[in-house]
């Protein structure tokens, strides 16, 4: 049977790679983005795979928009089997430069958005045969970064939420995983001096799919990914 997957926060980089991988594996993928036009071409591309893609506009910080988005998912694709909380935000500023609105925006996109999307998706998984929820993290989720207070705070919060949900929902057959992206992701269509210093988004997506396919006897809670030349 095909799975219904929701990727919340689809951009041209890793979000698109995740959607492509899941669709190739036969998933019907809901592409949540702020504007529908930004993911229309990707949705069309996915129609040529074993799965499909449906562009759905949603501001993940808005409870009403998230609710409406998941109603469309149910109507057009069915119950949710997989959720990838990929949206994040944060100004690259330190304590004295960061204003309250910027801080609250970072917390709204990551932790609040992840909470709203999970709350909308998990009931389907509880009623069915379980499911998978994946959170995209960063180095800043485990080690605060100077000059990135809002981003670091939001990523720490997302990691805590993922760990709490894993302990709460695991016994009900729902696999919750947090992925630490430890390094820069290769930007699409951009030449870089040394590609070896970057994570390939398509290869990251392979690891996300592995999390979906893991047997319940050996689930991963946290997976960290980095290029081989990264020092850690």
TrEMBL record:
<dbReference type="Pfam" id="PF00106">
    <property type="entry name" value="adh_short"/>
</dbReference>
<dbReference type="InterPro" id="IPR036291">
    <property type="entry name" value="NAD(P)-bd_dom_sf"/>
</dbReference>
<dbReference type="InterPro" id="IPR002347">
    <property type="entry name" value="SDR_fam"/>
</dbReference>
<protein>
    <submittedName>
        <fullName>SDR family NAD(P)-dependent oxidoreductase</fullName>
    </submittedName>
</protein>
